[in-house]
Give the backbone structure.
Amino acid sequence: MATIITMPRLSDTMTEGTVAIWLKKVGDTIKEGDILAEIETDKATMEFESFNSGVLLHIGIEAGQTAPIDSLLAIIGKEGEDISSLISNTSNSKSKEEKVEVKEDVAQPTTQNLQPITLPAGVKVITMPRLSDTMTTGTVASWLKKVGDAVKEGDILAEIETDKATMEFESFNEGTLLYIGIQEGESAPVDSVLAIIGPAGTDITGIAENYSKGGEASAVAKTETPAPVASSQPDQETTTSDNGRIFASPLAKQIAKDKGISLSQVKGSGENGRIVKSDVENFTASSSQQQTVIPSAVEGTLPTTQNLQPKTIIAGEVVTEEIKNSQMRKIIAKRLAESLFTAPHYNLTIEVSMDEAMKSRAMINSVPDTKVSFNDMVIKACAMALKKHPKINSQWKEDAITINHHVNIGVAVAVEDGLVVPVLRFTDAMSLSQIGESVRDLAGRAKTKKLLPNEMEGSTFTVSNLGMFGIVEFNSIINQPNSAILSVGAIIEKPVVKNGQIVVGNTMMLSLACDHRTIDGATGAQFLQTLKMFIENPVTMLA
């Protein structure tokens, strides 16, 4: 069924938006996460991301046109789908709304008798933002400002935990932080009063309470926050010598910010000159960069930051402790349960010799400024094996099986509150050193909760490694909509038989969990054989 996309509210003061440019045209195939258009608000020009997949069937606001928020922006659906009724209904609804507004104006005297509270000059009510497409409530992880602090436009007010990640929330206003409505650790629905900003010393008595009770019925202006786009912050915008804007993807902006790079010096290779991740990475490639490095003995990508301390108890005493479920934990529980009970799982296990891999890794890491882990080698081998066995790189749908010919490998990373899966896009085109660099960057930012939602979307296959904990073999639950996940165990030194002789060797267990709806046993077994060949003969991955 077709989905109507409306003009989003991309800033707290935005009432209308202008489509600066469309990056897709009618008839184009749209994937979740694709950038549909660039929209100019009253504060910045921002990328607008699609949260739906399908075909772009209709554009309601042409490039250069301005329209109020919630106006029909586009319609996405199945190719050839009849959307005439949707367009007609949208137009009719608009007409009805206008009539209702006129009727309400006529009846206004009865409302005026309520004498609603008005906002003092310069005061802004900030509400809980919607920072992801599935977010309904948010949790304040930490406040970076306290009541009484001066706030500038662009300052980070707080870190807010969504169902997907913890994101920095930026202020679009200047003034003094007069009120905090949601304390650290507390959760509240989207649009709840988060904070109030205004001139120092302003009396805000009753504003938060009346806003909560009266909402839009009171005269307190509803100050909404950004709609779900690729980032809660606008794209970095600079000016060139000819006063033209420079556009960068949210990920490119974040990388540039982390590395202290001015985007005005970077040439964009994306659509319409947009600066993308690879542009910033290629521009800054140097030996002087410092990155977060994961220990590389029996490397995995599951750094843990669990900090629960053991409780001192008296013998014979019954002691319990309740830990409030975070949004991340709730979503993990929901999705893993859905995966396990909807996809018929089965597991295939194979033992791999790691002797040659250990020699090859030692040689690779002898090159200055090069750092490759065993997990990086497994990821590279998976990417190459998936190209030879595309049925593993698939997704189940009720009416068809989608075979992905691009390879985006998700890497499971343990964080304090659970598990996140950042994605290496087009992994098959990456070298071992590029994989290593990207994994260290993603895992490091995962631990500090700096990953963007779009960096955890779009995987076609997943790798999970518990080898650093000494786990020899385990089975994982499939990260849907993937059809398979590889579980990587520890490298173990033990007696093995080679050429009829018992010698000391190093081996590693790999377990592949498959969705039987898409992958037959023989297909999974053939994939593991190919994977084994690549890992045991690393030179073949360099050919």
In short: Residues 318 and 500 are 57 Å apart (CA to CA). The first strand starts at residue 3 and ends at 6. Confidence is low (pLDDT under 50) at residues 95-115, 213-244, 285-306. The longest helix spans residues 84-106.
